[in-house]
Design a protein that fits this description.
The complex is a heterodimer.
Chain A: E1 2-11, E2 19-29, E3 34-39, H1 45-53, E4 60-65, E5 68-69, H2 75-78, E6 82-85, H3 99-107, H4 121-134, H5 151-164, E7 169-173, H6 181-198, E8 202-205, H7 209-214, E9 218-223, E10 226-232, H8 233-237, H9 241-252, H10 259-263
Parallel strand pairs in A: 3-8, 3-9, 6-7, 7-8
Antiparallel strand pairs in A: 1-2, 1-4, 4-5, 9-10
Chain B: H1 2-31, H2 38-55, H3 64-68, H4 70-93, H5 99-117, E1 123-125, H6 132-140, H7 144-166, H8 170-180, H9 182-187, H10 192-218, E2 220-222, H11 229-244, H12 250-273, H13 281-307
Antiparallel strand pairs in B: 1-2
The chains are: A alpha/beta, B mainly alpha.
């Protein structure tokens, strides 16, 4: 499904701020895999997702989705295959446009856009039903501007928008990190529902180790631009947060010093 | 008193004809958040192209007479404006030159091009030629003022309807989203370079059309006719916003630009009649826009300052 082969990326090359963000990443996802990604700050988690999405070009290596080499595709062309939710709730939606307009834009992801009307009448009904499933009451506010919604509502909407048109790959970049714990939980529940309902292949970055263990069928730990631990199936289900911390120390030779992660125990 | 009435009627004509330009400025400034300085150049370009095509109507080429048709000349002015917008668009999107600088470069380049179009002269009078206005007068028998107002309002309304339709389409929605949140719409598979380029093309097409209309209405084109057009455009948008800002629908927002333009020219007519030097008008426009941009910032700062208390609430 997704094949990442020896992908490297260095930022600010040949300057004093040179930073090796990805140091030879190899990762294969099977169709339907739900992979959680953890690692300290600067481990390269977000960079990996951004490389897959095409936000910046990679230095070397290859990224394939269903045997299509997308390494050289620009961001907007990769959107045909990929649905994304960002960490910042402001980033995934157009605040000045209506909820239904945002959904209509997302419903055309990867399709050619022409001069026919931006939202069709029968689409509105479909959007209403999809919003109803979120259980946030947004179906009655379809012509409200998205800017009026809370961060949690916006993340839930972005998630829905990313999956209105079934993506081959769903990228979630710490999409609950900016939310309060209760809202984060709700958005995570919605995530789990949508992913299992549509059987989506998903990569989800999280800072919460408990979530990383309890959600998905596979867990990947990153450190200094490399994948240092990869576990799936039964072995993953049996993991404890302590095991992860120990694994991290073993693999990296460092103490786990990210306070956000400690707090998330 | 009747003198004032006549100059106000004139102001309405000018207001709606320049209003077409304001619609163009509205697209870039309000929808894409770009202050596109191409406008000064593309407005004059539209005027020059229109004037020269009409003047060359008696030329010996087989197409001379065809292009001299006032409507065809107006269409060519629009196309010329679109081309100017495309130049700015390419500089801004492909070569990543900041939008303001890209616009200035095109505007400065157009100055020389406009002079070349007019054969090195700085103006081109259209004394005894046909215009869309004279044709309309012949057709309907209206007096000149009324005919000009009718045509001006007709064309401005047509353009408002066109834009209302366009921004409701799939491409138009994607363009609005580009101004709203580039990251979001790229993640939805839209090439934002393309939407920005298209917006600049359409915007400057309207500006060129407006230049052609003003040229036919005032019966001459002048190399300096576009100078300060962007400020007039911004002033009209600001005035329209103050008057009709409470109306939410997209159509009324477009219309507010044209209304703002009419009010701008009405104010101008009044202060000129009150004895203000015409050369000071540009200063007045600049001050109007500057104040409009300063007020929201100052109110925000003032509120912040006032809401501070040492002990808390």
């Amino acid at each position: 499904m997704l094949d990442i082969k020896n992908v490297r990326k260095t930022f600010n090359i040949n300057t004093i701020n040179e930073k090796k963000a990805l140091d030879g990443i190899d990762l294969h996802l099977d169709s339907g895999d739900f992979v959680t990604v953890i690692g300290g700050n600067g481990a390269g988690k977000s960079t990996m997702l951004n490389m897959i999405a095409g936000v910046y070009p990679i230095d070397s290596g290859k990224i394939e989705i269903e045997n299509v080499n997308i390494s050289r595709f620009p961001e907007h062309q990769r959107a045909k295959y990929i649905g994304r939710v960002f960490q910042d709730p402001m980033m995934g939606t157009a605040a000045g446009m209506e909820i239904q307009e945002n959904m209509a834009l997302a419903y055309r992801r990867g399709k050619s856009r022409g001069l026919s009307w931006g939202i069709k009448a029968n689409e509105k009904e479909f959007f209403r039903e999809s919003l109803e499933k979120l259980g946030l009451g947004l179906q009655d506010r379809m012509s409200n501007k998205v800017g009026l919604l809370s961060g949690g509502q916006r993340q839930a909407l972005t998630l829905l928008m990313a999956t209105l048109q079934r993506p081959k790959l769903l990228l979630l970049d710490e999409h609950t990190a900016a939310l309060d714990p209760k809202t984060a939980r709700k958005v995570l529940e919605i995530t789990d529902e949508i992913v299992s309902e549509q059987n989506l292949t998903t990569l989800m970055i999280t800072h919460n180790m408990k979530d990383a263990i309890s959600i998905g069928n596979r867990l990947v730990m990153m450190h200094e631009g490399r994948i240092i631990y990869d576990v799936s199936g039964e072995e993953k289900k049996k993991l404890e947060v302590e095991d992860l911390l120990k694994k991290f120390e073993e693999a990296s030779g460092e103490e786990f010093s990210n306070d956000r992660m400690i707090l998330a125990k | 008193m009747s003198g004032l009435l006549i100059s106000l009627q004139d102001a309405v004509v000018q207001g709606v004809l320049w209003g077409v330009m304001v619609l163009g400025v509205y697209i870039t400034y309000k929808q894409l958040d770009i202050a596109d300085l191409t406008v000064d150049g593309s407005f004059a370009l539209g005027g020059c192209v229109c004037a020269i095509l009409i003047l060359k109507g008696d030329g010996d080429k087989w197409y001379s007479a065809l292009l001299a048709n006032p409507w065809i000349a107006l269409l060519c002015a629009t196309l010329a404006g679109m081309a100017a917008g495309a130049v700015t668009g390419f500089l801004h999107t492909i070569f990543e030159i900041p939008a303001i600088l890209a616009g200035i470069l095109t505007q400065i380049g157009l100055w020389s091009i406009n002079l070349r179009i007019m054969g090195g002269k700085s103006n081109a009078p259209l004394l005894k030629t046909d215009s869309i206005f004279s044709q309309f007068i012949e057709l309907t028998g209206m007096n000149k003022q009324l005919a000009s107002i009718a045509i001006g309002i007709g064309i401005a309304l047509l353009m408002v309807i066109f834009l209302y339709w366009f921004f409701g389409t799939e491409i138009g929605s994607a363009m609005r989203a580009t101004g709203n949140n580039e990251y979001m719409i790229r993640a939805q598979g839209v090439n934002t370079n393309w939407t920005k380029l298209l917006a600049l093309i359409i915007s400057n097409g309207l500006v060129g059309m407006s230049g052609g209309l003003v040229c036919q209405s005032q019966k001459y084109a002048d190399i300096g006719m576009g100078t300060g057009a962007i400020v007039i455009g911004l002033a009209a948008i600001v005035i329209g916003d103050v008057l009709m800002g409470r109306m939410r629908s997209f159509g009324s927002k477009l219309l507010s630009g044209v209304v703002g333009s009419v009010i701008y020219f009405a104010i101008r007519a009044i202060v000129l009649r009150m004895g203000m030097n015409a050369n000071d008008m540009k200063l007045l426009s600049a001050v109007i826009v500057a104040i409009a941009l300063c007020v929201p910032v100052m109110t925000r700062k003032w509120r912040l300052k006032r809401s501070y208390t040492e002990g808390g609430v």
